[in-house]
């Protein structure tokens, strides 16, 4: 979702893109790579203006088995490390590398307000996010400006979380998760793309950046607002025990965790949110 949207925004600005693809390259705008096999024609990367890396298996696509946790790790940490090491060895490396991360870095923190200076949390997902960001250190050591975009829940139009949530809520099947008191930090797709573009162009931005709207909400408030946006009741809560039974570890770390992250870095950089409130983001993502 974000890769396509950011790529299209860059094209509109006149940029020429070179996409890394795992399959065989089909045109001059693509370059085959295989991080697991160490395959990447580094010469094609010489002299590029920037690099953007957003790889990562979806954390909510299935139950967190040991095998899937390895896949989540390899798709983030190993790919980031391989790309960073490759860029670091170039004679003309790009001046900036923007990588994806997540506010899962902070873990389950209750009502604590979390900014980029907050410590990492405990558990598998915070440890994964910390390793994900650390994997870009070879690029940083080579003098490349590295930005870690710690995304909250991205609300896109017919994509991402909304592609799953909106149909359920339109059927009247939406409800809070567990107690509903856990905090959720979210961002519209438009603002997520704009934040990535700012990270690419603003040489004063480096390190972690929380890509979240300025108004985090509780899950109960999120549920009510989405129900209001689609004009349906939200009377079917999902009890915490049922979520744990269905999703195991992922329920506690992704669905029930409370992460009240705020966009300190973006605010200090003068970022103007197109959708600073949840009703505005829902209106955009639902095509209203």
Quickly give the structural class: alpha/beta
CATH classification class? Alpha Beta
Distance between the termini: 20 Å
Main sheet summary:
4 strands, parallel
Q: How many domains, as an integer?
A: 1
- Architecture in CATH? 3-Layer(aba) Sandwich
Q: Count every helix, treating DSSP H or I runs of 4 or more residues as helices.
A: 11
Shape, per Cα inertia axes: globular
Write down the overall mean pLDDT: 94
Q: In CATH terms, what is the fold-level topology? A: Rossmann fold
Q: How would you write the strand order of the largest sheet?
A: 4-5-7-11
Q: Low-confidence parts, pLDDT < 50 over ≥5 residues?
A: none
Using only CA atoms, what is the Rg? 19 Å
How would you describe this structure to a colleague?
- This protein has 288 residues and is α/β, with parallel strands linked by helices.
- It has a single domain, classed as NAD(P)-binding Rossmann-like Domain (Rossmann fold).
- It is built from eleven helices and 13 strands.
- The strands form five sheets. The protein has a four-stranded parallel sheet with strand order 4-5-7-11, with helices on both faces.
- Helix 2 packs parallel to helix 3.
- It is globular.
């Amino acid at each position: 979702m974000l890769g396509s949207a950011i790529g299209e925004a860059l094209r509109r600005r006149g940029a020429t893109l070179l996409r890394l693809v795992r399959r065989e390259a089909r045109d001059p705008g693509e370059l085959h790579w295989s991080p697991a096999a160490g395959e990447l024609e580094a010469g094609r990367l010489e002299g590029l203006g920037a690099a953007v890396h957003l790889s990562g298996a979806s954390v909510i696509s299935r139950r967190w088995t040991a095998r899937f946790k390895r896949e989540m790790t390899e798709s983030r940490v190993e790919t980031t490390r391989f790309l960073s090491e490759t860029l670091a060895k170039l004679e003309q490396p790009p001046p900036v590398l923007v990588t994806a991360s997540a506010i899962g870095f902070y873990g389950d923190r209750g009502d604590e307000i979390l900014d980029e200076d907050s410590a990492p949390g405990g558990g598998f997902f915070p440890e994964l996010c910390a390793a994900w960001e650390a994997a870009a250190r070879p690029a940083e050591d080579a003098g490349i400006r590295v930005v870690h975009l710690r995304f909250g829940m991205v609300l896109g139009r017919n994509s991402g979380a909304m592609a799953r949530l909106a149909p359920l809520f339109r059927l009247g099947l939406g409800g809070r998760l567990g107690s509903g008191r856990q905090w959720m930090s979210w961002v519209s797709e438009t603002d997520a793309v704009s934040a990535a573009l700012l990270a690419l162009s603003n040489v004063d931005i480096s390190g972690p950046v929380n890509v979240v709207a300025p108004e985090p909400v509780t899950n109960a408030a999120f549920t009510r607002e989405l129900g209001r946006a689609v004009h349906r009741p939200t009377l079917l809560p999902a009890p915490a025990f049922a979520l744990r039974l269905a999703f195991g570890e992922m329920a506690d770390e992704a669905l029930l965790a409370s992460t009240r992250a705020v966009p300190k870095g973006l605010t200090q950089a003068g970022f103007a949110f197109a959708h600073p409130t949840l009703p505005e983001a829902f209106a955009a993502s639902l095509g209203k």
